[in-house]
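Researcher: We're teaching a course module on how sequence relates to structure. For the next exercise, students receive a sequence and then see the predicted structure as tokens, so they can try to spot secondary structure elements on their own. Here is the exercise chain.
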Amino acid sequence: MKIEQIYTGCLAQGAYFISSNGEAAVIDPLREVAPYIEKAKREKVKIKYVFETHFHADFVSGHIDLAEKTGAEIIYGPEANTGFKAHIAYDGEVFQLGEVTIKVLHTPGHTMESSCYLLSDKNGKEIALFSGDTLFIGDVGRPDLAQNGEMTQDDLAGILFDSLRTKIMTLPDDITVYPAHGAGSACGKSMSKETSDVLGNQKRFNYALRADMTKEEFISEVTSGLTEPPQYFPENVKMNRDGYESIDTVLERGDQALSPEAFEVKANNTGALILDTRKPEDFAKGFIPNSINIGIDGGFAPWVGALIPDLKHNILLVTEPGREEEVVTRLARVGYDYAIGYLDGGFDVWEKAGKEVDAVISLPAEEFAKRYREGNVKVIDVRKPDEFESGHVKGAENIALDTVNDNMSTLSKNETLYVHCAGGYRSMIAASILKSRGFDDVVNIEGGFGAISKTEVSLS
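Model: And here is the predicted structure for the students to work with:
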């Protein structure tokens, strides 16, 4: 038997490949399924099952494509209602995989269909729990995502309390917990950077598993401090529940190399959003007017989801040459399936063709500090509220990046806006959005608050 965690950092997501005696199962696969199929071929195993812990909100799973390409059976826990062929398991149902077994534990609370999968070896010893978004390392799944008119987040939190105590805390302490997410995911609020742990440690150190905790205390603690979920979450749930286009179709649509002239025509004819995924410092030096910069080497997919409200909007890409397919794939991971081409050769080709370009002024922190001391500068801090509260430039206005579209009306196009985040990634995204909305006088502060705090600027 072999267990492999396949962790994707930009989504803070863990998929799992389990194999035994010629058979394999994949739990919560990513949208692109070729790596699982290739892995199965290398290891000479047949993928028999695709287990889904719930209808994911933060990414589009590869369950449908993987089942169609391999003949594997898709498994969901009780109360799942799918728009495609799947086996809806009953609580306690056991699946044989080679010499091992996988048991369904229905653990509603994060969502009503949420289920964990308990792996036992050939001797029947329980050795691993694939806990989905029910139990994280250091946290539990947020209970507000599946609320509806009849069920509140408090109702779901109470159900989650019962699931944890009756289905998970009764398991042996030496079981290894493998969750669907780690730190950085929006599916919980205080997850550890660790991506697995033994259950006994979680019983001792996870605030939500305290033995003396009442249900009322649990509900209060697990629902406090929840931030607004990203707006793309409901659309991802719908795609995971009802179905979606094959990743092959999505990749083919996005794999259209366009000359500068063809790119310009397509942008004008389709109203496509131009997404530039180069490094912030490269984007600042020159970019196609009205394009948005979300660097592929940062928290790419979650920021796309937070800042581009329409998942079906056509998108034209400007990437570093050779990374076009990677960008299309990573967009598809969060349900943005309508990339319709890319600038062949990248921005350099556009510039050499003599096309119109724009730029963002980037100012070293020391120069900003000098202007700040001279007085009357408008500073926009796009970090999260808790980052801002822990220390900020005196007089700065906090507009968190994920709210910048909603707060544009509070800003004036007639003054210079000095924008910063913690290090520079988020501030360039904000600067590009502001520039695209007609804020021409935008200055990005290089190095962000980390660099600013080392200057003689007044901090609060």
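Model: If you want an answer key for the exercise: The chain has three domains: 2-234, 245-352, 361-452. The chain has a mean pLDDT of 96.
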